Automatic annotation (TrEMBL):
Pfam families in the record: G_glu_transpept
Any single biological process term in GO: glutathione biosynthetic process
EC number(s) given by UniProt: 2.3.2.2, 3.4.19.13
UniProt family annotation: Belongs to the gamma-glutamyltransferase family.
Gene: ggt
The protein's name in its UniProt record: Glutathione hydrolase proenzyme
Keyword Signal carried by entry: yes
Organism of this sequence: Wenzhouxiangella sediminis
Amino acid sequence: MFRRTRFAFACLLLTLACAVAWAADGPGKAAVSSAHELATDAGVEILEKGGNAFDAAVAVSAALAVVEPESSGAGGGGFWLLHRASDDFSVMVDGRETAPAAATEDMYLDEEGGVDRDRAINGALAGGIPGAPAAWVHIAETYGTLPLSDLLAPAIRLAEEGFPVDAKYQALLNWRAHVMKRWPETAAIFMPGGEVPAIGDTIRQPDLADTLRALAEKGRDGFYAGEVARKLVDGVQATGGLWTLEDFADYEVVEREPVRTSYRGYELVTAAPPSSGGIAIGQMLEIVEPFDLTGMSRADRVHVLAEAMRRAYRDRALYLGDPDFVDIPTGMLLSENYAAGLRTTLRLDRATPSSMLAADPDRLGKESSDTTHFSLIDSQGNMVSATLTVNLPFGAAYVPPGTGVLVNNEMDDFSAKPGEPNAYGLIGFSANAIEPHKRMLSSMSPTIVIGDDRTAVLGTPGGSRIITMVLLGILDFIDGNGPESWVSLPRFHHQYLPDEISIEPDALSDAEIEALEEKGHTVTVRNRTWGNMHGVMWNRETGELEAAHDPRWNSGGAVVVDIDAK
Ligand code: GLY
């Protein structure tokens, strides 16, 4: 007995020693991939200054808030998934926006009881209490090594000196310009002279530089108290919004245990609620695990995956919301037995109509997109996968005067009315109903996939399709491919309702579409691509790093660098 205990203890020590040695053995180089080259440069600048991945993540986030205002910002929120190599520790920093204290379940309903879409997405009433600045401060103070002022310096410089308009900024502004014009002071920042700027024109944001400077100097209080908070609250209230100084004082970042699951020998560390992404990805992988996906025809593979997607999105609508407000049956949703039960209803020859998968019509909700993602890894092997958002492009399209901060329209990610699909066709139920201080359900799915041979850090924007894009990226990684491949995969998607497989142009051949239609699927070919995936990969066997950005937009910046810390 004593011998056995000694042997077990020796094994444990050996395992621990191996784990520490393995964890301490980083790639030597660093890799950063974000939606904008200037934001990637900001991350590299901080790494070269001696910062770690977490420092760099703050710098990249703040820089994106300046140079990609259509996708994220100081007025928005996000999820930062951190992995620390020294002790193999992972955490999700939840900087999701919250509903103001004065929010009510029916605040977006009109007199006939329908959803007033304009109030739900345009202007100050659409804004949740921002979480991004509090998350930057939290990450810097808890996990970083450099002062916040250093981490925000590149963003402040970019706000002051300006950045050049690119095709993505221009395209998304074209979509939102008519709303922005309602508030001339807002339009003046993003549309100098009242026009959508030409590619290459410079956008300067001096008020945003001052706001970021206040944050750099005073930390959290530089944004959530004092002059900046007062200007934000005054501007929002003057245009019909609900924010108060108490809402700002009450805002808290939450550290959440990531969702962990495994697939074909790889460990997945992914987003926890209030993201729906991690649970849905885990569920879909569990459902498809027994199938030989790579040995099937492409049409059969799309069929099996679409059926898994359909079932996971049904459960997303039924069960998921802010875990601080609703009980989420995570254990059940991720269990092998539950997946096996769902699999018994999956036929290889027939699509299952969504109407045959029960959903409680008392509980429908919603949510949406534009958003950004970055992935990075430092020379020690610390990793960050972060997806950030203001929701629709340029958020609510309103900036409280004197702040430079675009208000998000994240309140539209709540279920404004049970069963009512949102702009992205997503449905939800009471788990995601509006309540004061509650976080709205999200699809943002920052993910890290850890294997003995290779590790992937990936994610993407794309509203309801984020989850399925990340799923396809994970499967492609596990099939042996690198980030150049994951970020440029042709995409297909099913989200339970509407009951259709939507595909990017040219994602499937005519014959493949026909084969899916023969099984009973409706296949809808969209007229544009979606997402903007950014990934990095560490090949632990060769020691090499790879980084890639989605080629569908050419503004991204993906680099592998030898860090020469100064
Ligand atoms: N606003 C997009 C999301 O959180 O999923």
